[in-house]
Amino acid sequence: MFGLLEGVGFKRVKSAVVPGFRFRKQSTQNSAEAYGVKAVLFTAEKPA
Amino acid sequence: MPPSTTGDAPDLAAPHAAEQAPLEAVIKGEVLRMYQEVADNPRQEFHFFHGREAAEMFGYERAWLDRAPDGAVASFAGVGNPHLRSRLQPGETVLDLGSGAGLDSIIAGWQVGPQGKVLGVDLNPQMCAKAEAHAAAAGGTMQCRQGTMEEIPVPDASVDVVISNGVINLSFRKRKVIGEVYRVLRPGGRVSIADIVSAKQLTQSIVNDPKLWAS
Questions:
Q1: What is the least distance, in Å, from the CA of A40 to any CA of chain B?
Q2: Which 3 state secondary structure label does DSSP give B35?
Q3: What predicted TM-score, i.e. pTM, was given to this entire model?
Q4: Chain A to chain B, count of Cβ pairs less than 8 Å apart?
């Protein structure tokens, strides 16, 4: 996502992992962790 | 839930072009079904957290959740809190991409005030109607347009801020979506997007599974 935002022309792209995000079911959470799945908050600006 | 990778890889593990169109249609159908289920049966347990429990987990202010209509809170299915970094100002025009039952639009509406404007876009026209009703019940206004995030039904350079919460990862064409977000923003406009990403490339069996994609 970070690369997609920069690639289209956004500037000041920033990302921060969403603390506390997890799946309710442990089996899903385990699979997510195996793939490095996480929730991230992205911010960016379109040049003026 | 097949997300984009955290790196700069091309659009995720997309299937071959010949397979993509029918699979995309199936996945869109599954996405509609899944989120309609959350809206219709918010007390049901899903494998992701939703409703007030999820919103509080992501730092939504309790005063917001107390003030918003119960239906909007109960059907919340976001993955983070785009309001933490949106820096919305009174009078701004906000687009909530994938507005669902409307909680994020309602909160945005409180921040931009009566001089501002909140537009929602959702694949599901029933969700659009629900979000508009929730916004009205919350004392605000919101205009929701049925449409896709790959072809956002909003004019060029007409929006100050785009917010989105757990939606873009559902698209087969994330690059197209981000291009559309860029198109609708005014110069100097900004985004605050909470979404799911993956550090590793997902296997083709995961990518091709509509139920996993939609969840």
A1: 6
A2: helix
A3: 0.85
A4: 122
Cβ partners under 8 Å of residue B111, min gap 6: B83, B86, B88, B89, B90
B188, A46 Cβ separation under 8 angstroms: yes
Q: Where are the beta strands (DSSP E) in chain A?
A: 11-17, 38-45
Residues forming beta bridges with residue A38, ordered by sequence position: B197
CATH 3.40.50.150, domain B16-214, yes or no:
yes
Say how far apart CA B72 and CA B58 lie, in whole Å: 16
- CB atoms under 10 Å from CB of B152, counted, come to 21
Tokens encoding B74: 């109960």
3-state SS class at B163: strand
If chain B, 215 residues long, is cut into consecutive pieces of 10 residues, what is the mean pLDDT of each piece?
A: 44 52 70 72 76 95 96 94 97 97 97 97 93 94 94 98 95 94 98 90 65 58
Q: What is the C-alpha end-to-end distance of chain B, expressed in Å?
A: 5
B102: amino acid identity, one letter: G
Which of chain A's residues have a Cβ under 8 Å away from the Cβ of B187?
46-48
Q: In this predicted complex, what is the ipTM? A: 0.94
Q: How many helices (H) and strands (E) does chain A have?
A: 2, 2
Residue pair B213/B30 in contact (Cβ under 8 Å)? The answer is yes
Chain B residue with minimum CA distance to A45? B190
Structural contact between residues B81 and B58, judged by C-beta atoms closer than 8 angstroms: yes
Q: How far apart are CA B15 and CA B5, in angstroms?
A: 15
> What is the average per-residue pLDDT within A22-36?
84
